[in-house]
Design goal:
Chain lengths: 200, 200
């Protein structure tokens, strides 16, 4: 039985498709939309179609961008174009940029190799990475995939793939996170932190 | 600093306004929209504007409805029009309908009296309820607001307001929920269950 009017039912259904949103939350969100003014609802609706229409991948680094040509990072002359940082997702670029420490370029794979989810190397933007590295202008590739099994495996796969091009391939350091407590660090992290210890 | 393209940033912002959605969730939802096909995104966007445009309150019971005139429940000839069930929100109508036990009409207040949130009787659809009851065709009004302080106070307020019209005003029974365990029932509920005990 259906007791919501069809248009409301349709909106609940759309919200319920979002990841992490159940039927109850979808209803709450739909009621929220009804509580908006016409203009606010129109803005929300417009933001969805606009994002979908205008956002594309940068032809160089595959990060998300808007408008024609390469993204602002690839196009910037103040960036060190001899270094490429390889990340899994566009949001990882944001995380790296937040550190304000990195000044090179990026390459976004849009996923990691994951046989369990049927994602192989051909499903990722690996070919374009190899092309960029093979052009000869790159001296270092930093693997910044997540420190989990799939991220590790992807980094390992890429480092082997890039070896023939005589390029330096590095991996982000493992260790105890800044501001954390030793007692809460897991064994694997502590082991890696010991391994990677540096002179003071 | 902003590293997402403006259209994506705008979409994240829209999602972040939804109740219970933080910045991280909003980003996840925005990325989900990008992963949709053009058609799917257009449908989502359309559902928002359509719901906002076409959903209105039934002029009789104030429940949400679509199209002209009274809602399907108010318009139905199979419903017992001498009984009105007063609920706080449209979703409470759905809960009541799910029980398949009630065959009367509804009245949706769109809120409860809540001095803490600056909601007084004038902010609710109380005047139209009084008009319906004063017409004389109603023999019973069932108060089905939530069994919390504000729902209680609203039910109490309404029952006093409707007393002059010689109408029977009832309240949903309190007691232990079906399928629950006595040991987990709170004191107040057990007390009400004892008070309301019935002969077998």
């Amino acid at each position: 039985m259906q007791y919501f009017p069809p248009a409301l039912e349709a909106l609940v259904e759309q919200f319920a498709r979002l990841p992490g949103v159940g039927t109850k939350s979808a209803q709450r969100l739909a009621f929220y939309v009804l509580s908006l003014t016409e203009d606010e609802a129109a803005n929300f609706s417009h933001a969805i179609t606009q994002a979908k229409k205008t956002i594309r991948c940068c032809p160089v680094c595959q990060n998300l961008t808007q408008g024609e040509g390469p993204c602002s990072i690839c196009a910037s002359s103040r960036r060190d174009s001899s270094t490429i940082c390889v990340v899994a997702e566009p949001k990882d670029v944001i995380a790296m940029e937040r550190s304000r420490e990195y000044n090179g370029l990026y390459h976004v794979l849009h996923g990691v190799i994951s046989p369990m989810n049927h994602v192989g190397p051909d499903d990722l933007h690996i070919k374009s990475l190899v092309e960029r590295v093979s052009s000869g202008a790159v001296s270092e590739v930093i693997m910044a995939t997540n420190p989990d099994t799939e991220g590790e495996a992807t980094a390992m796969y890429l480092s082997r793939l890039l070896k023939p091009f005589q390029v330096k391939v590095t991996r982000l350091a493992y260790g105890i996170p800044v501001g954390s407590h030793l007692e809460f660090a897991d064994d694997a992290t502590l082991m890696r932190a010991l391994e990677g210890r540096r002179e003071m």
